[in-house]
Amino acid sequence: MFSADDFHPLPLPRPDERTAAVRAETEADTLLAAAKAEAKKIRETAALEAQGLLTRALASANGEADQIREAARAETAKRQKRDDLDTWSARAVIAGAVGLTASGEFELAKMVGFDGGVAWLLPLVIDVYVIQAFRRHRDVMQAIGLTIAANVIYHLADAGLFGVNPGDGGKADPKWWLIAIVASVASLILWRMHTITAPAKTKREPRQPRRDRQQATTPAPVLAPAPRQEAPANSILSAPPIGDSGTARSDRQNDTSVAVKKATETPAKKTAPVAKKVAAKSRQKPAVEKTPRRSMAEWVTLAEPIFHTEFRRLKRNPTAAEFADAISKAGHGRPSDSTAKNIRTEILDRAELPALKD
What we know:
The chain is mostly helical. Among the domains are: 94-196, no CATH class; 289-350. Helices cover 69% and strands 2% of the residues. It contains 10 helices and 2 strands, in the order H-H-H-H-E-E-H-H-H-H-H-H.
C-alpha cells in the first residue's frame, strides 16, 4: 500500500530562528516586567497625591470651620452684649419711670387724705398693674393712661389749678369728687388685674331642655288617619208586594217597571249638567283639606316636635301660617292659622326654645 517514498521527514528549525525566538520571548518578559513596575509606580504616586489632596482638603475645611465658629462666637457675644444692654436699659427706663410716677402718686394719695403709712400702697398698686399689663400685653394703654392721669392731676392740684379749693395758710383742700376718684383707683385696678390674669373660660355647650331629651328618646304617637267618606250607592227601587189578583199583579208590575225605567233614565239625563257644575266649582275654589277634630292637648302632642324642627330650620319662631303648613306636610291635617297660633303658644308655655347652632 505505502512505499518508502511516501514518507518524508519534517524540516528541523534552523539555529538562527531558534535564537530569535528565545530573544523575542526574553524581550517580552522584560517589557512585561517593566510595564508592571511602571504601573505600580503610577499607582503609588496616585495614592500619595490623593492622600495629599485629602489632607489638604481636610485641613482647609477645618480651618474654614474654625473661622466660622470664631465668627459665630463673636456674633453671639456681640448680640448678647446688645441684648444685655437693651435689657438693662429697658429696666433702667422702667425703674426711672416707676420712681417718678410713684412719687406723684404717693403725694396724690396724701393730698386726698391717706395717711403716710398707707399712701405708698397707691403707687405700688398702680405700678404692679402697669408691669402686669406689659407682661401680658393687655390693658397697656389703660395702665399708662392711669399713671399719666394720676401725676397730671397731682401736679395741677398742687399748683392750685385743678380739683382743689384754696385753704388756710396756702394749703389747698381737695374737692369731694377728686377724693372719690383717687379712693376708687385701687378697687378699679383690682378688677382689671382679675380680668387680665384670669384663665380663659371654656365655652359651655347649650343645655338641652328636658322636654327635648324626652322627645329624643320617646317617639311621637302616630294617629290613624280618618276614614274617608264615600258617596252612597244609587238606590234601586224595590218592587211592591204581589197581590192575589192577576190583573192587579200585572198593573203593579207595569207600574214598577215604568218607575224603575224613569228612575234610571232621569239621572242619566242630568249627569252632564251636574258634572259641568262640579267642574266649574272646582275651577272657582280649590278643595279644602278636611282636618280631623282634635283637642288642644292632642294638637300639642302632635305638633311639638314639628315646631322644634321648624324653629331649628328657620332659626326663628315660625309664623302661624308656616306652622300650620308644616303640620299639614307632616300628615296631620292643616289647622287654621288661629289654631296653629294657639298650639304654638301652648308649646312655648310648656318648654324652652331649642338652642340654635350655627
